[in-house]
Amino acid sequence: MDTIISLEGVSWKRDGREILSGIDWEMKKGEHWGILGLNGSGKTSILNIISGYHFPSEGNVTVLDYPFGKSYLPDLRKEIGFVSSSLSRFSHIIEYESIEEIIVSGKFASFGIYEEVAKADWEKADGLIERFRLNKLKGKPYHLLSQGERRRVLIARSLMNDPKLLILDEPCSGLDILSREQVLALTKEIDRSNCSIIYVTHHIEELVEGITHVLLLSEGKIVAAGPKEEVLKDKLLSETFHLPVNVRWEENRPWISVGHNANVNIL
């Protein structure tokens, strides 16, 4: 499988309003993509289409060799891992479960364990705990974890089923700077799992060295897509964020600042 995602002429409408328009995007094996854009730019809509939860109003979609309209999409979802700060809505289900139970539940794509767990699955969960340096948290219930620890546990859980594609949707949202850097460091461990990564964020400094390509979105359209160093330019990012910005690079990470003469419309 050389092509992980193919979107051709994809548009998506909701309540008569066009949310995505004319999206042409391809993700190849070995690439890890960041997606940037303001709220309402279409990031979540693209993720929902990729995951098979929305069907495009127009265009062709193929994800992990599943052509939409010819495939059983629940099978596709089993091959995609998903981590998001929005998963906190399930906290009440797992608040008293141990991290081992939460991680192993990823095998069944459920929150809570409702099936018998094989010994090999517990061993695999232990391996993920070791890889993600969560040993000191073994046996600890979810509600006693910090936000950063919770995010690390959910990332480990997402790899339990050996996904071919992992979507990290603003995984550092709400984290302090130390917790953020700890989560970002995990991308190296994820890369060892031989799965492709989509990393969605508002903050370009989170696009660490392992993220190879970037997709910029504005008002449901693509501003630019391609290798990270070619896309993260002042002009393209200013168009994406609707205000003048400047980009600088430090230790292979991009950082952004707002132009001194920016005229921001507060209305």
Describe the structure.
A hairpin with a 2-residue loop joins strand 4 and strand 5. With about 270 residues, the chain is α/β, with parallel strands linked by helices. Helix 6 (about 145-160) packs parallel to helix 7. The termini are far apart. The protein has a domain at about 85-160. The protein has a six-stranded mixed β-sheet with strand order 6-7-8-3-9-10. It has a four-stranded antiparallel β-sheet with strand order 2-1-4-5, covered by helices on one side. Strands 11-12 form a two-stranded antiparallel ribbon. The protein is built from ten helices and twelve strands. The relative contact order is 0.16. The protein is globular. It has helices at about 45-50, 75, 90-95, 100-105, 120-130, 145-160, 175-185, 185-190, 230, 235-240, and strands at about 5-15, 15-30, 35, 60-65, 65, 80-85, 165-170, 195-200, 215-220, 220-225, 245-250, 255-260.
Low-confidence stretches: none
Shape type: globular
Largest sheet: 6 strands, mixed
| Number of E strands | 12
User: What is the residue-mean pLDDT, rounded to a whole number?
Assistant: 88
- Strands ordered across the widest β-sheet: 6-7-8-3-9-10
The separation of the N and C termini measures: 47 Å
Gyration radius, in Å:
19 Å
Binned, the helix content reads 25-40%
- Tell me the fraction of residues in β-strands, as a range: 25-35%
Query: In DSSP terms, counting alpha (H) and pi (I) runs of 4 or more, how many helices?
Result: 10
List the helices and strands in order: EEEHEEHEHHHHEHHEEEHHEE
- Helix/strand structural class: alpha/beta
Oligomeric status: single chain
